[in-house]
Structure formats: C-alpha cells, structure tokens
Amino acid sequence: MQFEVFTLLPEVFPSYLETSILKRARERNLITVNVHNIRDYTHDKHHTTDDTPYGGGGGMVMKPEPVFEAIETVLGIAASPTPPEPASNIPIILLTPQGRVFNQSIAKELSQYKKIALLCGRYEGIDERIRENLVTDQISIGDYVLTGGEIPALIVIDAVARLLPDVLGDPTGAEDDSHAMGLLEYPHYTRPPEFRGNKVPDVLLSGDHAKIDKWRREQALERTFKKRPDMLEKAELTKEDLKFIEKLRTK
Ligand code: ADE
Questions:
Q1: Beta bridge partners of 37
Q2: Among 11-15, 30-34, 79-83, 210-214, which stretch is predicted with the lowest mean pLDDT?
Q3: Same domain, yes or no, for 87 and 42?
Q4: Does the annotation count 201 as an active-site position?
Q5: Where would you tag: which of 59, 86, 92, 139 has the fewest CB atoms within 10 A of its CB?
Q6: Residue 95: CB within 6 Å of ligand 1?
Q7: Partners of 194 in the beta sheet?
Q8: DSSP-assigned letters across all residues of 23-45
Q9: Residue 171 counted as domain residue
Q10: Ligand 1 pocket residue status of 96, Cβ below 6 Å
Q11: Where residue 81 falls among pLDDT bands split at 50, 70, 90?
Q12: How much is the pLDDT for 82?
C-alpha cells in the first residue's frame, strides 16, 4: 500500500518511519510512504505557503495554490470541478480536528485502498477551497487540537499499515487487538511466573487452551464492561458473553 503525505514539515516523518515494524514493512515493500514538501510547489521568491485571513483575525491560513499543485502533480489528477465528486478513486484525506473521529473501523476501511493521500494542515487553518474542492475525506484523531496534522498522519499510517497482510510478524497479530473485535483486549503476561509477589494467573500456565480462550474472552468482556461500557453496545456478543455480562451487572 502506498501513502502520499503532503506537509510543510517533512522532517517530522523519517524517525518514526525508520523504526521497528514500519521500517520492516517499508523494507519489504509492503508499504511505501512518500513525503512531499508542499513548499516545493510554490513559485514565488519566498516560497510562500501561508497568508493572512480575509476578514481579519489572528493566525495564518494555508494558501490553496501550492496544496492543489502538490497533490494534483503527485497523484496525476485534475481536481474535480463539481465537488464532492472525487477526481480520482484515491482518497485525499485532510487531517483536521473537524474530521470524522478516527477509529479501528476507519483504519480497516482505509487498509482496503492501494493508495491514499494524507494532507497535514498547519497554521490557524487551511483555505476553505482546499476542503471543498480537493479533499475527499477528513479525519480527526480525537477531540483536541494539535499544532498540525503530522502526528495524526503518522497515527493513521501506523494503524492502517499494521492491518495489511504480512506487516505484523504473527499473521493473527491484529485479530485480538483491543478494538479489533469490538472489545478491549485481555491482559498479557510473560516470564517470570512470579514478579515481586505477583503471580501470573494459573489458567495461563495450565496448558488447557479451551480454558485459556474462555478466560481471555471473559477478561476482555470484563475490562470492556468496566472501562468502556459504550463499546459493548456495538460488539458482537454470543449468548455466553451476554450471560457473563449479566453476572457482572449483578455482582
Ligand atoms: N490537526 C490538529 N489537531 C488535529 C486532530 N485532533 N486530528 C487531526 N488533525 C489535527
């Protein structure tokens, strides 16, 4: 899968992309991340990418021309004259606190594409014509405001990349994740069996895999019930799950 990132701060990206799982995924050509500097698509002497807002007020606004030119050139498209009709089938996603709030199911949805474009906003805002006539989707990583869309873009790349085939060492690695099955994940333990007087639950040492599966499922249900009861509304639950939750309620 290919990620085309458009930013005014390309230097933010390499350190994270050159580490651990994303580094390996890139080396094995499972993902390609191309980071484009929007400033390279300016034509004036000062390489201007921002300007003051019409109507006054504080802060600067990202100019439309370099953003349109960068994305159109790299994606090889002409922007649609009749939005929201997409100009191509490559999603052009603006990272913004005004977007739909990112979650595991959006990550899954994006992982179905061969290529996505991620546009990182900066300054006080972007010229509205970028939002209206160029981008096809808007994503927020949560209800708070950052200084720019670079960390949100990395978050989207990370969450999407680990869902792609072969990116995680363990082929079932993403299946049990918190949120993957609509529940928070069960607790994990590794050696030693006892640490500072705290023991690993006996069931995990029992070798009885049916029992371990049942315990993990119940732990996931209990955690979700306690910490994120809202998630239980949408989770796929069996009759046994519902019985177990009923027991928790009456505890
Ligand atoms: N840019 C600034 N804040 C953001 C957020 N919460 N999500 C996505 N992009 C952003």
A1: 7
A2: 79-83
A3: yes
A4: no
A5: 59
A6: yes
A7: 199
A8: HHHHHTTS-EEEEEEGGGG--ST
A9: no
A10: yes
A11: low
A12: 58
Instruction: Return the best residue to mutate from 96, 123, 126, 154 for the ligand 1 pocket (most ligand atoms within 8 A of CB).
Output: 96
CATH of the domain at 88: 3.40.1280.10
Q: Are residues 135 and 19 in the same domain?
A: yes
pLDDT digits (tens, 9 = 90+) for 86-102: 667 999 999 999 999 99
What global pTM score does this model have?
0.94
Residue 135 alpha carbon to ligand 1 centre in Å: 15
- Domain region containing 235: 178-250
Q: 141 CB less than 6 Å from ligand 1?
A: yes
Same domain, 108 and 141: yes
The verdict on whether 97 is a catalytic residue reads yes
Question: Number of folded domains in the chain?
Answer: 2
Ligand 1 touching residue 151 (CB < 6 A): no
Centroid of ligand 1 to alpha carbon of 224 (angstroms)? 27
Amino acid identity, residue 228? R
Q: Which residue has the tokens 């994120």?
A: 228
145 lines ligand 1 (CB under 6 A): yes
Rounded CA-CA distance 117/2 in Å is 9
124 in catalytic set? yes
State the CATH number of the domain containing residue 196: 1.10.1270.20
